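Please predict the structure of the following assembly.
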Amino acid sequence: MRFWLQRLAAGLLLLLAVSMLTFGAMNLLGDPLFNILGPIAGDTENPTSVALIEAAEAEYNLDKPLPVRYAIWLGNFVTGDFGVQFSRDGAPPVRDLIEERLPRTLTLVVMAQLMATLIAIPWALWSASKADRAVDKASTVVTFLFVAIPSFALAVIMKWLFTLKWPIFPQTYNTSDPFWDRVWQTFLPALTIAIPAGAVYQRLLRTDLITTLQEDFILTARSKGVSKRNVLLKHALRPSLFSFVTIFGITTGALIGGALVVEQIFRIPGLGSAIVEAILREDFPVVLAIVMIITIGFVVLNILVDIVYTFIDPRVREA
Amino acid sequence: MSDSTSSPIDDTIADIPLASPLEGIAGAVTGHVPEGEFEGASKRRLGFGFWLAVSWLVTIVLAAILAPYLPLEDPMENIIVPSEGTPPYSPSSTFWFGSDQDARDMFSRTIWGARTSLTVGAAAILFGMLVGGSLGMIGGYFRGTSDKVISFCFLILLSFPALVLAILITALMDRSLLTISLTLGILGVAPVGRVSRANTIAFADREFVTAARSLGARNTRIIFRELLPNVVIPMSALALLGMAVAIVAEGGLAFLGLSVETGVTWGILIQIGAGRSELEAAPWIAMAPITVLFLTVLSLNFAGDRLRAFFDVKEAAL
């Protein structure tokens, strides 16, 4: 129990630090007023502009000192109020924007991780069962190539090959299409992210499987007459999943970064385009909300990884 | 993290590649040092593949440095060849890699792109090594509070998805070559720092350090004369992997419209060629820089990986 409390506290501390850093950096380096008011923001001579500036400052809490603004923002954020967008045209609250964009990115990342796992596990099992033979060596070379290819380069190649040269997949993502259509439109982008990730997982899992296959209990199972197939699936796989699960948690951060870029290439209006637009407009509340959501996802996932450990290896529960 | 190299049956499985997590890109981003691949070839030899990778890297670096003196077309010039019709021109003896929609020579642009991309990559990893490496050594050597603070900073840096952090910094600062390089350098600080910290801890308890201390050596001497050489040499492998990550990250920024403002990089070139109409009419605009970028990243990864195996760097602590 104490372990989990510590884990949770560390996660919260991390979130706090990340939010302070983001909030501070944006407020010290940016000038949001210009984006709310336009050129008037720089006009401190004209009394009408000054009045407008002061009104805007009051409206967006910009007249208060930085720590106070941070405290107000934090108080609102934890109650689920992400604030208003910094823009003139009466854009919807940040929360609406997030609710619109987040599911698209989430679908992409979840599909990508699923595909990566579905690629990695069978491939690793096959590879480990043929360890060190020519086919295994060839597959190792293939994983090396897949790991080296940047996701954006793969995305461009995939887009060229499978939407233009051989138009198997849809070219565009339509926000108005029904859910399952959009899932199909997300298939190719997700595969693009999944291939390099799957290659990373495969290499890791294959190594761990090979190590596990040298253990005594595998020999025991084999001598009892368990088939090679069942030894792999029922005896060797579970104890070999440890590092795979760790990496699964850690890579998600990198995967989200990749997803932001892949979204741009396949024109999926997800969090990627939202954060880029928001940063260019210095729309702080949107940037903050997105950074925080991604970081929360990251923290939660890593705690989940620790929970999953206890299922894979009961000894962890006692430790 | 399981460390397969500690297995008692090392001898029997010596020729099985003792690979481990997160190679290449993911590896350097998250702080894992990948174990050497293809170790079957023997640890004491770098092997043919290594030298092949190194020769590609030397070629591309030389081409990048010598670009102004090579007989290349101006990368910004529109070279209209009336006999060939309207641009984009496909690859030919005039345009080795074809030309883009504005009739600019892709071969020349790819070489000039190498100049910026490689500069960004090298500057970034240099910064990461200097800052992350020294912070990691300080934390690993002195331990205590400074170690806790440094480790927590690394944790914060690692918990930002790398690209989000890069977007944030480039958007708030400017997009000069220096800012982009430093930004990507910051991304390298935590992964490099963790490895250097782990290596320092591993060496700080060794007999030769105790011996130096008992002879009256001060901390600075121990760090620079005893620990640094042991930590730096194996980390040269990490530098190559990190450079690959920085080059790739620059490409990611380019696709978000946040790469360097002036000049061309591989990322910008690929981004220009990645539109639907460009891919349909002239796929070589994107494929030429993609190929060169891929070969470079592959070579950096492979050479780094072989060096790791050569120096026998063990999996660093998480």
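Chain A has a mean pLDDT of 84. The CA atoms of residues 35 and 87 of chain A lie 6 Å apart.
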